[in-house]
Amino acid sequence: MNIPNSNTDKKITVYLIEDEEDLQEALVYSLEQLGFKASGFSTAAEFYRAYAVNRCDVVVIDIELPDENGFSIAQHLRSASNVGIVFATARGDLSDRVRGLRGGADAYFVKPVHAEELAASIEAIYRRIKAAEASAGRALQPHQPEAPRGTGRWVLKEGDWI
Asked: Which DSSP symbol is given to 34?
């Protein structure tokens, strides 16, 4: 089954940080079949190297990784970017779920994770991010009244005319 992601031609890029190789491969494959551009990483170090070269739209993070805690990865990402963050982990205690969401995650799933539910969550997060970026872009553009047709227009800039 191929579910279109968002109403755009751009494929949503998803990075999955999961040290359990079989699960990582299965989720990457499933996300690709659902229309995403997905890549898997077994360690935080591998992820950071890839993320430094090519940013992604959403990161799916396991908490228990061999080289760094998933909560720490989410904290670093949230402090430096607006990337979507999803936890997919075996840690299902309420305290972990709350910590993850308060620490910057957009969603928190307890394994086993169904690929279609994960995909729907990724799509929703991506829509929110794109809407926020579009809204911020409109807010940064100053309102320019339209010049009368057929006439030139002078604009006074500090210290200069253009």
From this structure: T
- The enclosing H or E element of 14 equals strand 13-17
User: How would you classify the pairing of strands 156-157 and 160-161?
Assistant: antiparallel
How far apart are the C-alpha atoms of 29 and 48, rounded to whole Å?
21
Average pLDDT value for residue range 96-101: 97
Model pLDDT, residue 134: 86
Torsion (CA) 38, 41, 46, 47 in degrees, nearest 10: 50
**CA 72 – CA 103 distance, rounded (Å):** 9
Closest to 62 (Cα-Cα) out of 84, 44, 81, 37 = 44
Q: Torsion-angle region of residue 32: left (phi > 0), alpha (psi -120 to 50) or beta? A: alpha
Tell me the pLDDT tens digit for each residue of 43-74: 999 999 999 999 999 999 999 999 999 999 99
In degrees, rounded to 5, the angle at the alpha carbon of residue 122 between the alpha carbons of residues 13 and 95 is 120
Mean pLDDT of 94-123: 97
